[in-house]
Write a structure and sequence with these properties.
Radius of gyration: 25 Å
Strand order of the largest sheet: 4-5-3-2-7-8-9-10
Largest sheet: 8 strands, parallel
Distance between the termini: 82 Å
Strand content: 15-25%
Structural class: alpha/beta
Number of strands: 19
Number of helices: 14
């Protein structure tokens, strides 16, 4: 019986139609009505008035800590070291497991139920329903993921109401996070954290990202930026000046299927077109690093094989041996992998976005304004057809040389807080 006949039958028997509608409603999937990330943070008074920095992070576990959390934690530690103050790391989304924690040395694991006097504390506050966190008058929050900035607002409002303190929020902005979601509830919540009523001290991860916020007319009480530099552990594996790298017929892609902004489907479509066009495609190894996933059949005898999340040593050695790379990021942030790959002599194809264009970062970078599979595959085809077995690392750049990890941003932010809170 087709749908039209069913509707005719239901019209003749209204009670059956009512029952059918009720059954249909019960069988429909429930709409998402909660955002678990913004589960409220319960709090209570801590009479200790000492100045303290609080780093709000989703996790410190090695399984969850990629570039963003790691960078923010390093900035937090640099700021804490400059100020010489008390500090607390608060994990909002995951438990603290000592064996797999990436938290800096010297932090004491403290339960949220404790009112500890330890100078450096590490607190798991993921299982927080019915629990509270002790809050001081001079607790200053350093946030990076949007929901951590969102959930501390009631605490900061309470500090202001109780003590009259209009404490600033230090916001380490490492991407335009509303873009992580379709136009949606989360989009609006994330975007709202760039328009908070409290004074926000924004620290941007790259000038490109700060310029994007400026172009979109976001304003903050104070703001700084720092430019990414090559991870110092990775830098140990760079070739010596003048050393020529021996390159294999290998393509390395940044593969994170669970992260939409890394455009994994676009990566796969690009490689399929490349495999169909490259005369010796079967002779090339295609590797995906970043996140474990099933191997992908690309056709013409080519398979994209997943390496998962590599150690820094494995990653460095893979880049040293790789001729071509494909690393995409649908975001105004430059993204670390294309910077790293190109520095290690990989001819890497990446995409432009808004004001972001990495052309000229070094001689190994190919940044395209056309992000279609056809354009990306053509660029990759040009790179692979130019294979000669050797490559040159781009070591003569500010990025590769390193220097101060956060430029003058930490020093200037520390001086600002020192003056504002009359710290010695």
């Amino acid at each position: 019986m087709n749908l039209i006949k069913v509707k005719r039958v239901l019209k003749k028997f209204p009670p059956v139609a009512v029952a059918a509608r009720k059954l249909r409603r019960e069988l429909m999937p429930s709409p998402e009505m909660n955002v678990p990330e913004i589960t409220p943070l319960g709090f209570r008074e801590d009479e200790n008035a000492s100045f303290r920095l609080n780093f709000m992070t989703p996790s410190v576990d090695v399984a969850h800590v990629f570039g963003g959390i790691s960078t923010a934690m390093q900035l937090f530690e640099a700021l804490r070291g400059d100020l010489g103050c008390d500090a607390r790391i608060i994990c909002t989304d995951a438990d603290v497991i000592p064996e797999t924690s990436t938290a800096p040395d010297g932090y004491e694991i403290v339960s949220c139920d404790q009112s500890s006097g330890a100078k450096l504390q590490l607190v798991a506050f993921n299982d927080r329903v019915g629990k509270t966190l002790p809050i001081r008058k001079n607790d200053i929050f350093v946030c990076t993921a949007w929901w951590t900035a969102y959930t501390v607002q009631p605490i900061m409002d309470w500090q202001k109401e109780k003590w009259g303190s209009n404490n600033p929020l230090v916001y380490v902005v490492q991407d335009y996070e509303p873009g992580f979601y379709p136009w949606s509830s989360r989009y609006m919540m994330a975007e709202s954290t760039y328009r908070l009523e409290c004074p926000t001290y924004a620290v941007f991860n790259s000038k490109l990202l700060k310029d994007y916020f400026d172009l979109n007319r976001y304003t903050f009480a104070k703001s700084w930026y720092f430019e990414p530099i090559l991870n110092r552990k990775l830098a140990q594996y760079l070739p010596a000046d003048g050393e020529v790298l021996q390159k294999e017929k290998q393509i390395l892609v940044y593969g994170r299927p669970s992260i939409d902004r890394n455009a994994f489907a676009l990566v796969v479509e690009t490689l399929k077109l490349w495999a169909a066009s490259m005369p010796d495609a079967k002779d090339w190894k295609l590797c995906s690093a970043g996140e474990a996933h099933k191997d992908v059949d690309l056709g013409n005898g080519c398979v994209l094989r997943s390496l998962g999340k590599l150690s820094l040593e494995e990653y460095a050695n893979t880049m040293r041996a790789t001729h071509a790379g494909l690393s995409l990021m649908v975001s105004p942030h430059p993204s670390y992998p294309p910077l790293e790959m190109s520095t290690f002599g990989v001819k890497v194809v990446t995409n432009c976005y808004a004001n972001k264009d990495l052309t000229g970062f070094n001689e190994n970078m190919i940044s395209l304004s056309d992000g279609s599979p056809r354009a990306l595959s053509r660029a990759l085809l040009d790179v692979t057809q130019a294979y000669r077995g050797q490559g040159s690392a781009a070591t003569d750049t500010e990025y590769a040389k390193g220097g101060k990890p956060f430029g003058n941003a930490v020093e200037e932010l520390a001086n600002c807080l020192r003056h504002e809170f009359e710290l010695d």
